[in-house]
Queue: 2 jobs
Job 1
Amino acid sequence: MLGLVGAAAAYAAAFLPGGAPAWAGPLLGVASIVIMTATALLAAARPGGGTLAAMLAVGGLALAFAMASVWTIPPTDPANPDLDLGLPRAAAHLLYGIGLLPALIVPLVYAWTFDRATLSEADLARVRAAAAAHRGEAAEPPQRP
Amino acid sequence: MIPTLRALLQVADLPAFAGPTVAGVAVLYGAGVAAISLWAARRTRTAADFFVAGRGIGLLALTLATLASNISGFAFIGGPGLVYARGLGAVWIILPAGITGALGAWVLAKRLRLLAEVRPMLTIPDALGARYGSRLVQGLAGVAILVAIVGYMAANLRALGVVTDAVFGIGLGPAIWLGTLVMIAYSASGGSLSGVYVDVLQGTIMAAASTLVFAYVLDAGGGMAGLSRTILAADPAFLDPWGHLPPLTAASFFFVFGLGVLGQPHVLHKFYMLKDPLRLKWFPLLGTAALVLTVLLFVGVGVAVKALVVTGELEPLANPDFATPLFLLRRTPLLLAAIVLSGVLAAIMSTVNAFLSVGAGAITHDIPVALGRPLGDELRWARWATVLIAAAAAAAAQLPGALVSFLGIFGWGLFASTLVPALAIGLNWAGGTRAGAVASIATGLVATLALETAGFLGWIALPAGVSVAGLTLVLSLLVYLGVSAATSASARLDPDVRAVLES
């Protein structure tokens, strides 16, 4: 909800006279990450999901911090550019830090926690049993009062 | 002009590629598609085969099929053009790619696949119908999908025509119909079964072509550092984090494309198709790797062409969409250029095929079920619906470019605003209610149509950085949460669906 309010505020600010204030961009960027993280946390909220939830919370926080800091990195001097892995510092921070690094880490976290926190044989058996029970109930003729 | 989702559509003309090598590779590619379609058509015997590939595909097929459906021709043509014109700000469109694979898997892949264990799931509205125990929710979602698809399909068929015309030089109108006929042939005959295995071919071509082109990008500019130094000397703002875009526009791209993936039915319904749900463990790893490779071209070509223009090795582009074609023709071997062009065709065709399947599902399954009149022979009706949708979209694709582009803008944003709240939140939160789902889908549908139409007609002009897709997504999420909270007493779940939500 906090993320949604942030996103709504960022968009609403753009309607102010003079256009979007400087804080609207970073607010929407951070709010996007908060919403995505909260949605993932909602999915992780289940028995055995504690470790995953903690990892998601820490990861989301780090990513939100990284997003906010994009706006704080000063532009490079074009005459004497300071490059990180071939890009100006702010662009490198954006592409490698927010774009590429999560691509290397997040799928591994998913695979590593999958059996415990996402889906196990036991979960599958439980769902199939619930389905069978429901089908059994549904197949019975309705009871007359 | 500030780019909006309109920029994501490929409706401008491309330079002609017509030549024996390019046409030959395209014909070979078409023959591959035809062979797979024939194979699949013989194995399509039921509606489940048609809509969800008989629920029997493996992890690799799922990965490449979702990749191919997710990536349209924009990633190869419009995207690099946008980077060339607007700098790194355009990259925010693909910036969430590192997260979205795992996010989609956590939030939706498991739930959707498990729902297919407990109920006969053919379409995404089926999941909504089961989740909320409501035919109204299912029907409303079906209508929203149909509205989005016809316009989006028109834009994609137009794009298919543009590329086909550039390859074969037969004129735009005939090229649209030729592309449509190919699409009808393989989509109506084999449905999703055909689509998935064609997607495997298409996804492979797309990822391989993009990776190879990126190697030539680095070679063209003396590595990333060489490219950066060249551009910084002439246009330092190009390599700012938001390039020549307002920062709010860049952040809005991140918001819409990061969260909007959770509402794309043509991609999500592929999760039903996976044979063994436990194989989802490796889906984000494979999917993210394939996606990152595929978007290398998006970033690389735009930056490389900018550097080549700065050094005078390329003349300034008359149209930013020429970035990829000109780079391919001038800086890569002709055979690779031909393969990439086939990759563009592949990207468009796989997206169109996925739309056709989802649209046919809405017409022949979701809406009749919502009306309490399910159709008898869904397979036969689905084939006819595929032909009908394709023909309607092809006719719409012949309209003037600006109008086609307008029709197409609805698609992505409409999917996001109508489906993300009820589906992505609703399948992970037992507190979501039927009233919340109905209200959020209706809000997304009406608000998107009203705002996009008013914008197209010039009645309103949104401030710089504000997109209709972003605005309506926020609105429908707030409506879903608010109405669900207000009607929480009515929240109910069938026991089997509850087991899925609690797993």
Note: Confidence is low (pLDDT under 50) at residues 140-145 of chain A.
Job 2
Amino acid sequence: MSARTAHRLVWLAALLPSLIFLAHLDASAVTSTSALLNTAGRLTGVAGLSMLLLAAILSARVPGFDQPFGGLTRLWRTHHLLGAWSLILLLLHPVLLALSAAGASIESAAATLLPPISDLASWSGWAALILMMIFLAPSFSFFGRPRYERWKKIHRLAGPAVALALVHDFWLSRGLPTWLDIVLWSALALLAVGAVGWRFVFSRRIGRLAYTVSEVTAVANNVVELSLEPRGRKLRHEAGNFVYLTLEDPSLAAGRGEEHPYTLSSSPDEGQLRVAIKSLGDASRAAQTVQPGTTARVEGPYGRFFVTPDRVSEPELWVAGGIGVTPFLARMRHLLHRGETADVCMIFCVQDPAREIFATELHNLADQLEGFRLNIHYFYREGPLSGSYLDEACPDISRRSVYICGPEPLNALVQQHAAAAGIAASRIHTEEFELL
Amino acid sequence: MKQAVYTIFVAFWACVLTVVALDALTPAAEAGDGQETKSTFTLAEVAEHDRLEDCWMAIEGHVYDFTAYIDQHPTPPEVLEPWCGKEATEGMRTKGYGRDHSERAWQMAEQYRVGSLAENGN
């Protein structure tokens, strides 16, 4: 099953309650404008809640579960879209019902929106919606870009929001036969509760492996590479995977005990794990000074960037931007370890030579890997990556599969050039590390 | 997507505030509207109003004149017609798939109350 099919199945599951609702409508649902608005209002409620529950289910972050979906970042994109649609539909839900009631009187429209205090069923819906506005405001940058940890904390309000939305639904829903209503929503609710339970209870206990920071190498003035030795069981992963890393160093200025996602830069064949951390926020800045001997907890692996991580079975084009070089570095180390040949044309985009991280090692690896061509693109000199630069650096681009990891503008640009070169979308692979 | 969500978010509050403002600006309807209020009716008297053009119902001990409301009810008039002139508690408590009307619906019904049902019905 392709990742695209897997995502379509998620959307189908999210739309299923709405389809069942529509199948159970009778003719009276569309006889007047008021009835039509009422039906639309109820439908948006059903669709919005099912999308909210599906988004909750996808938040589980079970290692391996993301594989059929093409990796965790793609799963998150669907989670994000489901959340967006859920909020849009649930905002429309009370407005449509109020407009429908306005057919009777403006008073009943107002009473629909602001019912008597005793109407706890409606108020639980209101409470859920207000919580959604709060916890989704940072996700959609309502009031500027959020800080990662703050966003994450606020996002936990999703739990009570889902619970209140379910109370509202079980109390008021009447579009389906009772048994079907109960079975359908209970199934989705159980999956959502299971997913969140996994995430906040089990994954913390059994999903995290204990490691020790054995070495801290300064790669540039704002990038370090940590080496991690397993204390017990070792993480099994592929080149290009990422993990959630929690550093327990008590002397850390920020981010102690917090989990943050980082790409593994080591070969899966190495005994240790390596992660390169660029100072981008409070926690990653503090991590620059982490002390060897620190306890680290590793949860993963996640992501599915490379189709064949252990070898290069067909020609590939790699485009890395800045710290986005890490999955490629992991794969180069891995390919060399395995003695593989690599028909790869790589373009490493950096601002200027000072930011060319891992420069020496990259050139060494490129020299040792048979068939590998490394190009460094300097933004300060050449500006944004152009189609002509790509053609010159990699004349046979159209026969290559494309892998991109870097900032969003670079990602979009390369996808555009690749599409223009006639490369099918299914052969263009991206790994996004910008979460929002 | 961010813009779309934000737009709907703003539109939502605009709609809610508009409805609330309109409601505040609309003069409250006179209670009872000149009907013979809080009188007592027998089921036989209620039964005289058994048409859509003159539709009374007895619900949980109260008597309502829903004639003016028939057209505004979400379901078509045929659904309500059989209850005109009858004891309609069952209809009120079990709409759709056997579920009660909302708290709001019960509140709205108050506007149409014309009296109570006589103790021993007939």
Note: Residues 326 and 354 of chain A are 17 Å apart (CA to CA).
